[in-house]
Write a structure and sequence with these properties.
Two copies of one chain form a homodimer. With about 230 residues, the first copy, chain A, is an alpha+beta fold. In chain A, about 50% of the residues lie in helices and about 5% in strands. The first copy, chain A, has two domains: about 80 residues, Glutaredoxin (3-Layer(aba) Sandwich), CATH 3.40.30.10; about 130 residues, Glutathione S-transferase Yfyf (Class Pi), Chain A, domain 2 (Up-down Bundle), CATH 1.20.1050.10. The first copy, chain A, contains eight helices and four strands, in the order E-H-E-H-E-E-H-H-H-H-H-H.
């Protein structure tokens, strides 16, 4: 399999985590969606990452696209599935995936990555340049209520959506991980969220992500520290 | 079942279509997300429509949330399912749902509904007022390439995602229907898109939608005309 991704795109990170949990190691190709290359647009007309070329003429785009496709074919025993079997839990997992891949991305991880990372590498005609400080200020404000909500979810159950780890945990962790790289997660605000994140981060599937680096930008002190 | 919706929210319309195709008639409650009422936020912390109260303590939010929940429990014979059985077709249905519920909404139906309908009913402190003409201009520009893509999809197969009608068709039709009410679909641009829409619109599941009216705003001449 070949995964077209960006190292600090949270949706791409989610796919890397999910595949690693399933023991699949895809080849990686770095995409630059702002270049709008024809060969990439043929794979995914939306022009966004991630895109997984899973087989000849089967390109699956988007974090949820890959997750649901894997669920359609998952052979894992019920207690190890990332999408649980019980109907109400499935509803909750999908709700939280949407929360993190949609709302958290729009309000927190998307703005942080675009302003602090992507704009360093984009040419100015594609929107590159210095970060917009008012966008950063809004994202710093937004992460506080998101972290409180995450802590509330983590205190309610062993894992975010219920008694077993699911796509919901990997979605939340993928988005948090890029914000954590940038040192923008106020971990001291919420002990339950922090304890939950330490557990997810300690999984072998997380290892490759913790080795990623942005050229010219060191990660925060907590980023790769499993006992932060 | 009780559906919290807005009559001209395309995601809500999708859920009404899907339920009607399955012979389910939910009670309807009109929501005003900008009021951010506590009882509504308890059902869906995102504060968005639609939300389907399917059973005691089972509230399902979002167009895709409802669609995938229904698919989990669908008893229809394979050739009448709105989510096909074949893996590659399932991938394509999900890709197109995301295209219409995400990209088309962001670029076309969302701006049109907000500027031309919602802003008439929102108090000015919540953003109500006159439509922003530059946003409308962008949406008018965007719909042209979306209609061409839709026509290309419609010409490729009997239905958008393959040989049978699916969630993809209902998603596209739900979003187009609100833009059509506003007279903003350049139907003469694409015969294949127009022929496909006439077929979807003629289904009994569409009837209730064609009777909806915005107070003080007549629908376009094509809206309720099955032979437009």
């Amino acid at each position: 399999m070949l995964l077209h991704h960006r190292f600090f795109c949270p949706h791409s990170r989610f796919v890397r985590l999910v595949l690693a949990e399933r023991g699949v190691e895809p080849d990686l190709a770095e995409a630059r969606p702002w270049e709008r290359r024809d060969d990439f647009l043929r794979l995914n007309p939306e022009g966004t990452t991630p895109v997984l070329e899973a087989a000849e003429s089967l390109a699956i785009s988007g974090a949820e696209g890959v997750a649901f496709w894997l669920d359609d074919t998952d052979q894992a025993p019920p207690d190890r599935r990332l999408m649980p079997e019980a109907l109400t839990q499935r509803v909750e997992v999908r709700r939280l995936m949407r929360w993190f891949h949609g709302k958290f991305f729009d309000e927190v991880s998307g703005p942080f990555v675009e302003e602090k990372i992507d704009k360093r590498f984009m040419p100015s005609e594609a929107g590159g340049g210095a970060p917009n400080t008012s966008i950063l200020r809004a994202a710093r404000n937004n992460i506080r209520y998101h972290l409180a909500y995450l802590g509330w979810l983590a205190a309610r159950n062993d894992w975010l959506a219920g008694p077993q780890m699911s796509y919901a945990d990997l979605a939340a962790a993928a988005h948090l991980s890029v914000v954590d790289y940038l040192g923008e997660v106020p971990w001291n605000d919420d002990a339950a969220a922090r304890e939950w994140y330490a557990r997810v981060k300690s999984r072998p599937s997380f290892r490759a992500l913790l080795a990623d680096r942005v050229v010219g930008m060191q990660p925060s002190g907590t980023y790769a520290d499993l006992d932060f």
